[in-house]
Amino acid sequence: MKETETIIEMITRFTDIVNVLEALGKTYKEFEKVMKILRSLPSKWHTKITTIQEAKDLTKLPMEELIGSLMTHEINLTKKLQEGGDKKKKSITLKATTKEEEDVEEEKPSDEDDDLALIIRKLNKYMRGERFRGRKFTS
Question: pTM higher than 0.70 for the full model?
Fold first, then answer.
């Protein structure tokens, strides 16, 4: 299987080759076809190949079931690659927003200082009122 080739393309090419060989008199058993397909898969499929070999009886595994399993795995691989690309894009976006947030946070201390000063003035004014004259706070 070529790296850029999909499972359907590989199976189509494989079927064409097998059909030509059968026309020339060479026939393959279902088991032989299954094994040839599994051997032709690239290394990123190694875990799926191992799973199929351990979970299924390859002598009785129909080609249709193998193809369905491989197509499902291919779809999952494609989704993972797309999600991985999206995560990279998201992290770049987050880095950009982080810098903007840092700029905003630098401006906030002056606003917070103004708010705190206002609260302190109001508290002092309230404390100067008649209700608190002569009272001392104990902590």
Answer: no
